[in-house]
Amino acid sequence: ALAVRFLTRRFIGEYGDTEFIYSHTLTMDGREILFHIWDVPNSQEQAEKGSSEEKRIQWADSFVLVYSICDRDSFNLLPLKIQFIKAAKERQSQEKVSIVIVGNKRDLHHQRVVSSEEGRLLARSLDCGFYEVS
Protein backbone atom coordinates (compact mmCIF):
# COMPACT_ATOMS: atom_id res chain seq x y z
CA ALA A 1 0.00 0.00 0.00
CA LEU A 2 2.81 2.42 0.86
CA ALA A 3 4.68 1.74 -2.38
CA VAL A 4 1.58 2.33 -4.51
CA ARG A 5 0.72 5.46 -2.52
CA PHE A 6 4.27 6.80 -3.01
CA LEU A 7 4.26 6.03 -6.72
CA THR A 8 0.72 7.06 -7.69
CA ARG A 9 -0.45 9.36 -4.87
CA ARG A 10 -3.53 7.11 -4.63
CA PHE A 11 -4.72 4.79 -1.90
CA ILE A 12 -5.93 1.34 -2.81
CA GLY A 13 -7.51 -0.67 -0.01
CA GLU A 14 -6.89 -4.27 -1.06
CA TYR A 15 -3.62 -5.89 -2.11
CA GLY A 16 -2.65 -9.43 -2.93
CA ASP A 17 0.33 -11.38 -1.64
CA THR A 18 2.40 -10.83 -4.78
CA GLU A 19 5.79 -9.19 -4.99
CA PHE A 20 6.43 -6.45 -7.54
CA ILE A 21 9.34 -4.34 -8.68
CA TYR A 22 8.36 -0.74 -9.37
CA SER A 23 10.50 1.94 -11.00
CA HIS A 24 9.94 5.62 -10.36
CA THR A 25 11.86 8.82 -11.05
CA LEU A 26 11.61 11.69 -8.60
CA THR A 27 13.21 15.14 -8.73
CA MET A 28 14.69 16.29 -5.42
CA ASP A 29 16.77 19.42 -4.98
CA GLY A 30 17.08 19.72 -8.77
CA ARG A 31 18.42 16.16 -9.17
CA GLU A 32 16.60 13.24 -10.70
CA ILE A 33 16.60 10.14 -8.51
CA LEU A 34 15.63 6.77 -9.92
CA PHE A 35 13.97 4.42 -7.45
CA HIS A 36 13.60 0.70 -7.97
CA ILE A 37 11.26 -0.57 -5.29
CA TRP A 38 11.07 -4.29 -4.67
CA ASP A 39 7.79 -4.64 -2.80
CA VAL A 40 7.80 -7.96 -0.96
CA PRO A 41 4.82 -8.99 1.17
CA ASN A 42 5.81 -10.72 4.38
CA SER A 43 4.65 -14.22 5.18
CA GLN A 44 5.95 -17.07 7.29
CA GLU A 45 6.54 -19.10 4.13
CA GLN A 46 8.79 -16.40 2.68
CA ALA A 47 10.63 -15.96 5.98
CA GLU A 48 11.75 -19.58 5.68
CA LYS A 49 13.28 -19.01 2.22
CA GLY A 50 16.55 -17.51 3.43
CA SER A 51 18.45 -17.73 0.14
CA SER A 52 15.89 -15.78 -1.92
CA GLU A 53 15.65 -13.22 0.86
CA GLU A 54 19.43 -12.82 0.83
CA LYS A 55 19.28 -12.14 -2.95
CA ARG A 56 16.79 -9.32 -2.30
CA ILE A 57 19.06 -7.91 0.38
CA GLN A 58 22.12 -7.93 -1.89
CA TRP A 59 20.06 -6.19 -4.61
CA ALA A 60 18.98 -3.29 -2.40
CA ASP A 61 20.80 -0.13 -1.28
CA SER A 62 18.37 0.72 1.52
CA PHE A 63 15.38 -0.83 3.25
CA VAL A 64 11.96 0.23 4.50
CA LEU A 65 10.44 -2.36 6.82
CA VAL A 66 6.74 -1.83 7.45
CA TYR A 67 4.67 -3.24 10.29
CA SER A 68 1.06 -2.68 11.24
CA ILE A 69 0.49 -0.89 14.54
CA CYS A 70 -2.55 -3.19 14.82
CA ASP A 71 -0.52 -6.40 14.48
CA ARG A 72 2.00 -7.31 17.20
CA ASP A 73 3.35 -10.26 15.15
CA SER A 74 4.37 -7.98 12.27
CA PHE A 75 6.27 -5.80 14.76
CA ASN A 76 7.92 -8.76 16.49
CA LEU A 77 9.44 -9.94 13.18
CA LEU A 78 11.47 -6.75 12.76
CA PRO A 79 14.50 -7.39 15.02
CA LEU A 80 15.37 -10.68 13.30
CA LYS A 81 14.81 -9.23 9.83
CA ILE A 82 17.01 -6.23 10.62
CA GLN A 83 19.78 -8.43 12.04
CA PHE A 84 19.57 -10.64 8.94
CA ILE A 85 19.79 -7.61 6.63
CA LYS A 86 22.72 -6.09 8.50
CA ALA A 87 24.64 -9.39 8.58
CA ALA A 88 24.09 -9.97 4.84
CA LYS A 89 25.07 -6.42 3.87
CA GLU A 90 28.13 -6.36 6.13
CA ARG A 91 29.48 -9.44 4.33
CA GLN A 92 29.21 -7.42 1.12
CA SER A 93 30.44 -4.01 2.33
CA GLN A 94 31.67 -2.17 5.41
CA GLU A 95 29.24 0.71 4.82
CA LYS A 96 26.36 1.21 7.23
CA VAL A 97 23.11 -0.09 5.77
CA SER A 98 20.22 2.38 5.66
CA ILE A 99 17.07 0.94 7.29
CA VAL A 100 13.85 2.73 8.18
CA ILE A 101 11.09 1.17 10.27
CA VAL A 102 7.58 2.36 9.41
CA GLY A 103 4.55 1.78 11.60
CA ASN A 104 1.55 1.75 9.29
CA LYS A 105 -2.18 2.27 9.92
CA ARG A 106 -1.75 5.18 12.32
CA ASP A 107 -5.30 6.21 11.47
CA LEU A 108 -6.55 3.02 13.18
CA HIS A 109 -5.38 4.21 16.62
CA HIS A 110 -8.41 2.58 18.27
CA GLN A 111 -7.02 -0.84 17.13
CA ARG A 112 -3.41 -0.07 18.10
CA VAL A 113 -1.49 -2.83 19.87
CA VAL A 114 2.04 -1.47 19.27
CA SER A 115 2.74 1.93 20.81
CA SER A 116 4.65 4.68 19.05
CA GLU A 117 7.19 4.56 21.86
CA GLU A 118 7.84 0.85 21.25
CA GLY A 119 8.52 1.59 17.59
CA ARG A 120 10.85 4.48 18.42
CA LEU A 121 12.74 2.43 21.03
CA LEU A 122 13.18 -0.50 18.66
CA ALA A 123 14.43 1.77 15.88
CA ARG A 124 16.86 3.53 18.22
CA SER A 125 18.18 0.24 19.63
CA LEU A 126 18.80 -1.12 16.11
CA ASP A 127 20.17 2.17 14.70
CA CYS A 128 17.28 2.63 12.25
CA GLY A 129 15.07 5.54 11.26
CA PHE A 130 11.43 5.51 12.41
CA TYR A 131 8.13 6.92 11.17
CA GLU A 132 4.45 6.24 11.69
CA VAL A 133 2.05 6.78 8.79
CA SER A 134 -1.51 6.15 7.69
From TrEMBL:
Keywords recorded for this protein, A-Z: GTP-binding, Hydrolase, Nucleotide-binding
UniProt GO MF annotations: G protein activity; GTP binding
Domain of life per record: Eukaryota
EC number, UniProt record: 3.6.5.2
Keyword Cytoplasm on entry: no
Enzyme class name: hydrolase
Alphabetized Pfam families for the sequence: Ras
Catalysed reaction equations from the record: GTP + H2O = GDP + phosphate + H(+)
Family: Belongs to the small GTPase superfamily. Ras family.
Protein name, entry field: small monomeric GTPase
